[in-house]
């Protein structure tokens, strides 16, 4: 019996491929491994000092943590809309959505700086106990990754403005979206660990 080879149409192939490119997924994997190690440190410290983690969480500004969460989720949504718009060959919409994503993403470091200022005004620094040492280390690392993501948004936006991406070639925009979503997912783990569950 002869077996016929099935050929996928371009739309079917596009639906099955991994978004972005291999390079960005290597970076995302490294980011996840790094934070997996940091989360292991969190759980080890929390197991040894449960009272410190409970008391420390009560002193954090949950409004700031919630604000960062909303900013991350909303900016991720805007960037996803930008990818969707370029897929539909709506260049202007893609630009508008990406600018919106950038503006909202820039709110994260602003809120973080305000939160740190608030913490310091209330005597909360990296030497205020094991909870705050772990808190600052994890959240600062996340801020560094988010800053790389914001720089990535600026780069991709510059390329998008000069028609560097089209409905046929938008891998760079998709790679940015994948990285930003990964950074968003990590924050969605950090937020409950420090602001809610502790």
Give your account of this protein's structure.
By secondary structure, the chain is mainly alpha-helical. It contains seven helices and no strands. Helix 2 (about 20-50) crosses helix 3 (about 50-60) and helix 4 runs antiparallel to helix 5. The longest helix has about 30 residues, at about 130-160. Mean pLDDT is about 90; it is low at about 1-10.
Short description:
This protein is mainly α and 198 residues long. The protein has helices spanning 10-16, 22-48, 50-59, 62-87, 91-121, 130-161, 171-196.
The share of residues in helices is over 70%
Number of strands: 0
Derived from helix and strand composition plus strand pairing, the structural class reads: mainly alpha
Order of helices and strands: HHHHHHH
Any idea what the radius of gyration is? 20 Å
Largest sheet: none
Overall pLDDT level: 90
Shape: elongated
Q: Which residues sit in consecutive blocks of at least 5 with pLDDT less than 50?
A: 1-12
Number of helices: 7
Q: Termini separation (Å)?
A: 63 Å
Strand content: under 5%
Considering the chains and any ligands shown, give keywords for the structure.
80% helix; 198 residues; single chain; disordered N terminus; mainly alpha
What is the secondary structure topology, with strand pairs?
Elements: H1 10-16, H2 22-48, H3 50-59, H4 62-87, H5 91-121, H6 130-161, H7 171-196
Helix pairs in contact: 2-3, 2-6, 2-7, 4-5, 4-7, 5-6, 6-7
